[in-house]
Design goal:
The chain starts with 7 loop residues before the first strand and ends with a strand. It is built from 1 helix and 20 strands. The strands form 3 sheets. It has a 15-stranded mixed β-sheet that branches. About 5% of the residues lie in helices and about 45% in strands.
């Protein structure tokens, strides 16, 4: 999800100016042996209801420091994917290259593939609350607990994705980011961060741990801060979020982000 809300406020009146469309690139390269993909579209103005526009004729490649180049082919609606399964390799640097039909070339900053720690430990805890439908009923609300073995020799940046019965919690407030600033090299239990995710008896909990780069972490943090502040007292004026894409032969701005992520998963069913 990408926030492209371009507005300014003056004298308590909302003024929305038309902006030139900009290229938006979104995607990740993982270390899972799977089809890798990105999406290329054009930005829209805040009140534009005409439907999303896609770029469907670009040349897209993933290039790596070990000399391997992977082509991504367009399928539909701006979606480009590898022709077969591919997995990013630990310690290898990658960057994305996009050649537009008008000759402009877009690249991402270089991203190094990490190696996420395993999710060997997963459990659950619960708290009790009054039922929203019956004040005479006290219900148990469950949430996951896990532990990670952090690499103390480097700074590490993590993102958790949480699934309930195989369905992802995908709202902006569910973007869960952690860095190892306060537990570098230790094996902390991750618990308090999960209490906003509600599970009940017989639900299945799925956790996906992604180790990402610092630029990916900062991009997602800014995305979350901007999208979750709308309508709140900590409101942040919406605007394009700086990513890591740039033109090689143009001064225009590119929106979006492409990066690497190493993935570990685990799950548990709530049975007492």
């Amino acid at each position: 999800m990408l926030v492209l809300l371009l507005w300014s406020c003056q004298d308590n009146n909302l003024e929305l100016d038309d902006q030139e469309q900009q290229v938006v690139i979104e995607g990740w390269l993982s270390d899972l042996d799977t089809i890798q993909f990105i999406k290329i579209s054009l930005s829209q103005n805040f009140l534009d209801n005409s439907g999303k526009s896609y770029i469907e004729d670009a040349g897209v490649k993933i290039r790596s420091s070990n000399g391997v180049t992977i082509d991504l082919i367009h399928s539909s609606n701006g979606l480009y994917s590898t022709q077969s399964t591919y997995s990013g390799q630990e310690g290898i640097n990658y960057f994305l290259e996009v050649r537009l039909s008008d000759g402009r070339i877009i690249q991402s900053s270089t991203q190094k593939m990490a190696s996420a720690p395993s999710l060997d430990t997963i459990n659950f805890e619960y708290y009790e609350r009054e039922s929203a439908t019956n004040e005479n009923i006290i219900e148990q609300v469950f949430y996951p607990i896990t532990q990670i073995n952090d690499n103390g020799e480097e700074e590490n940046y993590y993102r958790f994705k949480v699934y309930k019965n195989d369905t992802l919690f995908k709202e902006s407030e569910n973007i869960l980011l952690i860095n190892d600033k306060f537990f570098n090299g230790n094996s902390p239990f991750i618990e308090n961060e999960f209490t906003s995710f509600e599970f009940f008896e017989s639900d299945s909990i799925g956790l996906e741990l992604q180790e990402i780069t610092s630029t990916g972490y900062n991009y997602l943090r800014n995305l979350k801060n901007q999208t979750t502040s709308l309508g709140s007292t900590s409101f942040i004026t919406p605007g394009p979020i700086n990513g890591n894409m740039f033109y090689l032969n143009s001064d225009e701005k590119v929106l979006g982000y492409w990066g690497t992520c190493s993935i570990q998963t685990n799950g548990i069913k709530i049975i007492q």
